Amino acid sequence: MKSRFRFSLLTLMLLVCHTSAAQDAVNEDPILQDPILQDQVRYWKGNLHTHSLWSDGDQFPEMIADWYRQRGYNFLALTDHNVISAGQRWMSLKKIVDRSDSGIVDRYRQRFGEHWVEQRKSPKNGDEEIRLKPLNEFRALLETRGEFLMIQAEEISDRSEGKPVHINATNVAEALMPAGGDTVREAMQNNLRMILEHEKSHGRPVLPHINHPNFGYAMTAEDLAAVVAEKFFEVYNGHPGVNQLGDEHHASIELMWDQINAIRFAAGVEPMMGIATDDSHEYHGRAGSRPGRGWVMVRSRFLTPEYLIAAMRQGEFYASSGVSLTQHDFDPQTRTLTVTVDAVEGESYRIDFITSLKPGTDPHKIGLVVHSHDGDKATYQMKDNECYIRALVTSNAAHHDPSFKDQKKQAWTQPVGWPTK
């Protein structure tokens, strides 16, 4: 009897020691103890509209990604026109130099090494060619867990009624060809339907967003309001040619946003949310659509495409062209929006709270500034006759690389206070 007791006691002691040792191993595991995996919500900075030599940009994709990585971005989507950076692609050295400058390949070699850059004579005509590296080949050189992530994406570039219809699809599995349509609105709907079917068939979240609606004055607020499955569009695009401010016959993008959401509110449709992007093409200091002008700040627990997209679908992000926020919270009980700026020394800020009044209000105003506050923190409580509330924060400081005249640094929060179903 005593021997059985001693055996059981010994087994228990060994089990306790094993469990303790296993727990110590977990506690000492540097991966499991990494702050990145400690389930903390934080902001991640990213650009969702970027072009490279794979379409009409003028730089190698890994050079572009390295530019963003070195400047504190956490994620980047390469969005070349109707193509993803995948497969074998060789490009004429002359075309590369003509598009950029004579030093582009030397800088490429200097950054990534002589053995990384692949050059050959074309088997067709003997011309010098450089191989464009695909994303799945170069991402390992740049990605860092919890710091920098590349997301495969595409700008689906369509046309209808002689106008450009461009929609970005972020986190695609393969390239999607334009679906077409007899009207701009139909082309938008057809392409969006294709993206959503792609998402379902591949079992991965894909974020579609409408690009630069005023480019070629292709899209109206009515068009964007009608495509109800689309929830995202570019409230700011850093390309100088996208008519951000509109003209005497066309609304600015800022006003268009409120027009879209006033229509959607009346129809009982979810609001459109605003994204800021670079739409970068030019990376050598010349005039054009340069990087670093606009971005999104996404509030998420983890830096993965799935978590980022889920957070954006919940409105957990803001758009920026230079202003950073530490807080943009809406209390649904009190219907109060609070915005706090991450203030920069020497800058001052104006926080405008913007809404559209409900149908039947006299007068029925759209894009109405209902309250303004000078300072780095402000709170606004919605009134019963307001459809939603959003905040626009404007710094007195000029944008570091403006895309239009007299541009200031700004940030845009998403419309909140929308009726719940």
Automatic annotation (TrEMBL):
Annotated stretches, region: Disordered: 399-421
Signal peptide: 1-22
Bias type Basic and acidic residues, positions: 399-409
Keyword Zinc (UniProt): no
Domain of life per record: Bacteria
Polymerase/histidinol phosphatase N-terminal domain segment(s): 46-142
Keywords: Signal
Gene3D superfamilies per record: Metal-dependent hydrolases
Keyword Membrane: no
InterPro entries hit by this protein: PHP_domain, Pol/His_phosphatase_N, Pol/histidinol_Pase-like
Name by which UniProt lists this protein: Polymerase/histidinol phosphatase N-terminal domain-containing protein
Naturally occurring in which organism (per UniProt): Roseiconus lacunae
